[in-house]
Specification:
This is NmrA-like domain-containing protein. Helix 1 runs parallel beside helix 3. This protein is of the alpha/beta class. The chain has a domain of about 180 residues: NAD(P)-binding Rossmann-like Domain (Rossmann fold), CATH 3.40.50.720. The chain binds NADP nicotinamide-adenine-dinucleotide phosphate. The site of NADP nicotinamide-adenine-dinucleotide phosphate (NAP) has 27 residues, from helix 1 and strand 7.
């Protein structure tokens, strides 16, 4: 059981704090005034002057040595917390099982946010091509629910840093300036959210009773674009028309089959977003998503993000 009387602000543990989303979660939690703790693997603590460690300590986070592979370290860390947020990569999703066991054993965590932060794994359509990517997230959801752990799932759609820097052109590291591939008819809309904003919305949920045992969907109105709209916006920014190469659904499916990893996963996300996508399911209220629930949160629009690339 918890060792001490609960402080006024929730104490937040971020697992995966040295990662890209994890670092943003730590910053957002500290900005919101929460005592914030970063579970850091021993190899980092051996180099206390390294950039990831300096940025956590300079921001004001308290480091806790631990790992998902070290169960006693998890129990000890979790026993001091009100909130646990996990931001390990999807390939490690199932490694959250000991963390869930530790949360159950500690018995004091009021909210657990597992490593999801993408499309809704129960709704996405990928025709079984994803090598278990979403199946692992669903397995973790079912374990959380069967253990009765208070939780919130964050479904934020695509991070801006993923696919958007190339204008959804896998293999490029900058947006195209001559020709552009359009997948399908180009009219299905996808949603992009900056990681720092995902983190801010995530922190808003942790003490909010409206999000208890619910999924928070992020679909900011300024960030919902089809490929046609995206290309149109980009052409205006660079003041040039691009040659359009249309890739049909059949061709994309064939490309997915033939592509090596990690390109295959990029194409699968394009297929599930820009061909099969429909990110219009909201749970807390049939109409409400994150920006409506937390209208005070400023977020980066896609238009602003593309300005940084032009
Ligand atoms: N929606 C999107 O477009 C999108 C794109 C990418 C990721 N995501 C999601 O964002 C989340 C985080 O991804 P990310 O790209 O930010 O991850 P990342 O940068 O790869 O960071 C992973 C973090 O997990 C830690 N970690 C790995 N194994 C661990 C273990 N056994 N015990 C404790 N910590 C461990 C790493 O620690 P070390 O520093 O010690 O290795 C690191 O801090 C995931 O849920 C992922 O699905 C979404």
């Amino acid at each position: 059981m918890c060792e001490e009387a609960r402080p006024r602000r929730s104490r937040v543990l971020v697992v995966g704090a040295t990662g890209r989303l994890g670092g943003n979660l730590v910053s957002a939690s500290l900005s919101a005034g929460h005592p914030t703790f970063a579970l850091v693997r021993p190899h980092h603590l051996a180099v206390p002057e390294s950039a990831p460690i300096r940025s956590l300590t300079d921001a004001g986070a308290t480091l806790i040595k631990g790992s998902l592979d070290d169960y006693p370290s998890l129990v000890e860390a979790v026993r001091q917390m009100d909130v646990v947020i996990c931001a390990v990569p999807t390939k490690k999703a199932l490694e959250q099982k000991p963390l869930i066991r530790a949360i159950k054993e500690a018995g004091c965590v009021k909210r657990f946010i597992p490593a999801e932060f993408g499309l809704d794994p129960t709704k996405v359509q990928i025709c079984g091509m994803d090598h278990g990517f979403y199946g692992k997230k669903i397995e973790i959801r079912r374990l959380i629910e069967s253990e009765g752990i208070p939780h919130t799932y964050i479904c934020c759609n695509l991070f801006m840093r993923y696919l958007l820097p190339s204008l959804v052109q896998p293999g490029l590291d900058a947006p195209p300036r001559d020709e552009v591939k359009i997948f399908g008819d180009g009219n299905t809309r996808g949603v992009f959210v900056k990681e720092a904003d995902v983190a801010k919305f995530t922190i808003c949920t942790i003490e909010d009773p409206r999000t208890l045992n619910k999924t928070l969907y992020l679909r900011p109105s300024g960030n919902v674009y089809s490929m046609n709209e995206l290309v149109d916006l980009w052409e205006k920014k660079i003041n040039k028309f691009l040659k359009k190469i249309h890739i049909t659904e059949e061709q994309l499916l064939k490309n997915i089959q033939d592509a090596p990893l990690p390109l295959k996963m990029d194409l699968i996300f394009i297929y599930s977003t820009f061909i099969k996508g429909d990110q219009t399911y909201f749970e807390i209220d049939s109409r409400i998503e994150g920006t409506q629930l937390y209208p005070h949160v400023n977020y980066t629009t896609l238009n602003e993000y593309l300005d940084t690339l032009a």
